[in-house]
Specification:
Length: 330
């Protein structure tokens, strides 16, 4: 699977997996931000030079280096400052391969956030994975390569692979991995290489692949994801909705508190829980109200691991629960 590029023109963000440029005036200029431990953060300008910039430009597919911009030229970032004292030789394929202090260790402020300006390539290809045959968050997995969609073989496809799929689609955590063309056979070409995600990748295109399998569309893999946030101003804030019995529904705010919200934020890779709004703070949902009186300790890895009293309750959508997490997926 080739490197996945995504251009968000309305937010002035250009991303290649775990590195992105923010707040520039084109896709190859902006403040350098890196994705680590479930959160985007900035890079300090200490020791930063054109060699480092060349690595970032190459990693983003942006051609030759033009300039290095320090002192928050593209505006100060927010949240974590992940990297400091970065020293690249220039041959690295990623900024993560360069010498640097321990991730998160720094003596900087956001007024020192570094930026780069690279030359733009002639063209880019923009696409993303998709689930087909069910809904946005459930269905047969299809991945792009070149100008062609491919279905994925179910051989060795596991929970870690599914976690990356659900994360990239902003669909929470995976409920099920289904083989044998559970959402019908695809008519795309067959991607037969084995996918080997660690589970913490931000995008599916970053997962390694290995030996090929002799597969047919009888072995198309499907993924069903579980939790999502709706109605917020970022992917890490909104009304909590869960997928059950093939239908999205809300969570009643009876007993809803920060430990519950902490589990949702962790499950979505959105950092810490800042608040647990009640009373349909992010608007009223529709359809079933699936869960009430959740009793999470806060240490659970998924909301489905918390104590709950069955599925489907009589309640009003004016009581829909929400969360606001510290992270920002954009």
């Amino acid at each position: 699977i080739g490197l996945l590029y995504i251009l968000y023109t309305s937010f002035c963000i250009f991303s290649a997996g775990n590195v992105r440029l923010v707040d520039g005036n084109n896709s190859c200029a902006g403040r350098v931000e890196v994705f680590y431990s479930g959160e985007w953060g900035t890079v300090c300008g200490d020791y930063w030079d054109l060699t480092n910039t060349a690595v970032v430009c190459r990693e983003l597919g942006c051609g030759e280096t033009s300039n290095t911009m320090r002192a928050a030229h593209f505006g100060p970032g927010s949240g974590q400052i992940w990297m400091d004292d970065v020293i690249c030789s220039g041959s690295e394929s990623s900024i993560f391969d360069c010498s640097k202090t321990k991730m998160g260790d720094h003596n900087c402020r956001h007024s020192e956030d570094v930026g780069v300006i690279c030359s733009e390539p002639e063209s880019f290809s923009f696409f993303g994975i998709r689930l087909v045959g069910g809904s946005l968050c459930s269905g047969r997995l299809e991945v792009p390569h070149g100008n062609t969609w491919y279905t994925v073989c179910d051989a060795a496809f596991d929970q870690q692979d599914a976690e990356v799929v659900c994360r990239e689609l902003n669909c929470g955590a995976p409920v099920q991995v289904l083989g044998a063309a559970a959402f019908d056979k695809g008519d795309a070409q067959m991607w037969t290489q084995e996918i080997q995600c660690r589970g913490d990748e931000y995008q599916f295109a970053l997962c390694p692949t290995s030996l090929s399998h002799n597969c047919s569309h009888d072995s198309d893999v499907s993924v069903v994801c579980a939790v999502r946030l709706v109605g917020g101003n970022s992917h890490c804030a909104g009304r909590v909705e869960v997928l059950h019995d093939g239908q999205w529904g809300t969570v009643c705010d009876a007993g809803w508190d920060l430990p519950d919200a902490a589990v949702v934020c962790r499950e979505l890779g959105c950092g810490e829980a800042l608040s647990a709004p009640k009373s349909a703070h992010f608007g009223e949902g529709s359809g079933p109200i699936w869960i009430s009186n959740l009793m999470c300790t806060g240490s659970e890895s998924t909301l489905m691991n918390c104590r709950l009293f069955g599925w489907g309750i009589e309640a009003n959508h004016t009581e829909d629960a929400g969360v606001i997490c510290s992270g920002k997926f954009t």
